Amino acid sequence: MGCYPVEHVPETRGDYLLAIDRWDRGNMPHVLLMMMERLKVKANLRVAGFCSEEWIQESFLKLRDEKRLTGQVKWIGPVSEEELNKLYLGARAWVHPIEETSVSMPALEAAAHGCPVVMPKGSPLFHHGVQGFFPEEGNLEQYAEFVDKFLSDERLAWTMGYEGWKLAKEYDWAAHARLIGEIIMKYV
């Protein structure tokens, strides 16, 4: 795994939440709408990424409208690397709906842009309360509570994002290449 950390993190975090991934039957963004309903602080959510099946996006948008979140939740869909970088840089936090059993590349990419993360049970690289918050999977009240902390305290979001950025620098592509080189040299 590897990432491209930005040279400097922005001075402040943006004002929207970002969710991006490859959305499929095992990774549906719908839980994010239930989290949004529970927030005490009004927020905007941008959902980006590719859907493996068209009905996933359609059902998400239908549920968004039913929950009267149309003005707060924007479906962006697939984005270019340039657009993605801007989204990470402008987000208050990156949010993910399900537990990741391995290192989450979007979480690492978010961290590489100084963007803190909120995802169930976290990721092996990150620590709860340091680079982000990691609610129990399925605990929507706890999920919303952690997101509210970032929404109501930009400096907390910035600080945790900065910690994530420092960690991401240890996993940039140059470090990845050095590690592969060391492995190769060990067996040559």
Based on secondary structure, the structural category is alpha/beta
Specify Rg, calculated over alpha carbons.
Answer: 17 Å
Element-by-element helix/strand order: EHEHEHEHEEHHH
Strand order of the largest sheet: 3-2-1-4-5-6
Considering DSSP H and I runs of 4 or more, what fraction of the residues is helical? 40-55%
Number of helices: 7
Share of β-strand residues: 5-15%
Give the biggest sheet: 6 strands, parallel
Mean pLDDT: 90
Looking at the structure, what is the overall shape?
globular
Ranges with pLDDT <50 over ≥5 residues? none
Number of strand elements? 6
How far apart the termini lie comes to 23 Å
List keywords for this structure.
13% strand; alpha/beta; globular; 7 helices; single chain
Q: What does this protein look like?
A:
The chain has 188 residues and is an alpha/beta fold. The chain is built from 7 helices and 6 strands, in the order βαβαβαβαββααα. The chain has a 6-stranded parallel β-sheet with strand order 3-2-1-4-5-6. α1 crosses α5, α4 crosses α6 and α5 packs across α6. The radius of gyration is 17 Å and the shape is globular.
The gist of it:
This protein is α/β, with parallel strands linked by helices and 188 residues long. The protein is built from 7 helices and 6 strands. Helix 2 links the parallel strand 2 and strand 3.
